[in-house]
Amino acid sequence: MGKIASIEYFRVPPRWLFVKITDENGNIGWGEASLEGHTQAVEGCLDAWIGRYVGFEADEIEHIWQMSWRTSFYRGGPVFMSALAGIDIALWDLKARKLGVPIYQLLGGKVRDKLKVYAWIGGDRPGDVLAQAQARKDQGFTSVKMNATEDLAWLDSPSALDSCIDRLKAVKSLGLDAGLDFHGRVHKPMAKQLAKALEPHRPMFIEEPLLSEHIGGIKALANLTSTPIALGERLHSRWEVRPFLEAGCVDILQPDISHVGGISEMKRIAAICEAYDVALAPHCPLGPIALAACVQVDATCANFAIQEMSLGIHYNAGSQDLTSYIRNPEVWNVEDGYIGLLRGVGLGIEVDEEMVRRLARDAKPWVSPGFIGPGGEIREW
């Protein structure tokens, strides 16, 4: 046992928020509370919880999780759950390091030795995908993901969808599987057309075909196409996931470990998905701590399918990348579409604390981009 002595957080480029917990015996753990575009809000929540949780037993992870959920009156949502994720992941890392085992050993043990992964191509305004897809293939990937479209009007010209079909065909010509992310930027009148047009070309999945508040529309769309429907990055707890499972409108659940309250809740969400024959493919365009935490859960889940990783993602351009901030970046090497299981203690990564502290000194918060249409209207990003 050991009481929490300190909780620190570090805003670091390109858009990540790391958390470090130290107990009274000097044991440490690292977590990630990144919430893209809302760093200051999460930092404010962490400030409040730091004052509360210093002095709590670091081993009592579930107690701290339930305290954060049940005694806040206002619960859930992206800010609270991202702050909680940073604390939860760090506590799991601390406990597993103290015991000298990987986190997956504390979650019931592994059911696999390597994990299928995919990486991004194309950017927010997708283009030049053939060269980027070839580069991913050369890196060892067999699967990629790209945005389906640029920004669209609520009802746009049907021809605005043609380039998506062309890009998918180009990527598949290299022998790669490709997921298409609608990114919630495609509204129902266009999403119906695009889902139907893509179907003959067999994308790996279509992601967030509509925003998650439109569950009825997603259900209708799921009945329109045989292409697997993926979603979940904007669902923040098992309670928010449940209606989609009950509606039978999701095939691949993509919870983000930094947005759902960490390892504890991700494991519970995975178990619920298994009961509905829904695959787990965690969302993770974030940093190495979040990805390592995903891998620890993925290793233990029978219904795990594929893991997103942010290696070389467009958001990292000109800044730090997935291989930054850790001393063992080789853990992210991809071979034949897979990465190996992380075998080290705790999260299985060694955080370069000196680099974290140095780059956190003047780090600015990342601001989410936005799209403006030709009439001056705001469009979904």
TrEMBL record:
InterPro entries the record matches: DgoD-like, Enolase-like_C_sf, Enolase-like_N, Enolase_C-like, Galactonate_deHydtase, Mandel_Rmase/mucon_lact_enz_CS, Mandelate_racemase_C, Mandelate_racemase_N_dom
Record flagged with keyword Metal-binding: yes
Cofactor(s) annotated in UniProt: Mg(2+)
Domain Mandelate racemase/muconate lactonizing enzyme C-terminal: 126-228
Keyword Transmembrane helix: no
Any single biological process term in GO: amino acid catabolic process
Gene Ontology molecular function terms on file: galactonate dehydratase activity; metal ion binding
Recorded superkingdom: Eukaryota
Key words, A-Z: Lyase, Magnesium, Metal-binding
Pfam entry (one): MR_MLE_C
UniProt protein name: Mandelate racemase/muconate lactonizing protein-like protein
Naturally occurring in which organism (per UniProt): Delitschia confertaspora ATCC 74209
